[in-house]
Design brief:
Layout lengths: L1 E7 L1 H13 L13 E4 L3 H7 L5 E7 L7 E8 L6
Antiparallel strand pairs: 1-2, 1-4, 3-4
Length: about 80
């Protein structure tokens, strides 16, 4: 499982969701800047076999009163063998 997340403003993160749909991870040379990566398993295998995220979550993230942050999380998982 590969999970990447980023905390930022709503519109910045909404644009990143759109760009991920337009250009899948397998066609990128690297992850976009600003994301934190959590890997469980082999990342190259996931990138080759699952170019679209299996989950995308955009939700409010606790922040200071003056800065309202959102967290965007993408998750990739390998398909289960049948």
């Amino acid at each position: 499982m590969l999970v990447i997340y980023r905390d930022d403003g709503f519109w910045t993160l909404a644009w990143l969701v759109i760009s991920f749909h337009l250009r899948p991870l397998s066609k990128r040379n690297s992850l976009p800047p600003g994301f934190v990566v959590q890997v469980s398993g082999s990342f190259p295998d996931i990138a080759q076999k699952a170019n679209r995220p299996s989950s995308i979550h955009l939700c409010p993230h606790p922040s200071t009163a003056g800065a309202h942050l959102w967290r965007l999380t993408f998750g990739w998982g390998l398909p289960q063998p049948q």
